[in-house]
Specification:
Blueprint: H1 4-10, E1 18-25, E2 28-32, E3 35-50, E4 58-73, E5 76-86, E6 89-98, E7 112-122, H2 123-129, E8 140-154, E9 159-173, E10 176-177
Antiparallel strand pairs: 1-3, 2-3, 3-4, 4-5, 5-6, 6-7, 7-8, 8-9, 9-10
Length: 180
Amino acid sequence: LDLAPLATLARPLGCKLQWTGTLETTSKLTLQESRLELEGTTSLADFELFGGPLGKDRLHLGSVNISHNLTLSEKKIDVRELELKTELVQANFSGLAVAGEHGWLRLEELRELEFSGTLNVEVARIATMLPNTLKLRKGLELTDGKLEATLEGKRDPIGLTLDASLKQLRATLDGVELSL
């Protein structure tokens, strides 16, 4: 599926971002009563995002692969696998949440909540594509760097843990290496 015409259709709805690329999916969607199951993969090839808040910047990804295996119902969300892989970002998430007596409105009443995820981002490569969006100082170039993060959540007691670190960050300013 060519994505460019979808960007054209989104403009009248107020979307200022534009995109190009192709979409392919081998997903299986099953709907039984009030339960939805989604399993498979979705891929984008030669994906480019530009315009709107990105201004003159352009984010280009040669490939984006998303693996998904999840079940949604009125009272339960079960994400067995949700994985994103690109040349710039790798992320995965899994978790289970079961609503309480009042549905999803009261976090403290959830019968079950447990999830975890990881995120790895090639910061320097993204900064090269999005210098204006990130408002990088003129002459500043990030030459290396990775963001690594883990996220965990649980119900009893309710808690959320986020651990993030920036590793191997290197940069130059007007050709002079910075000490970071």
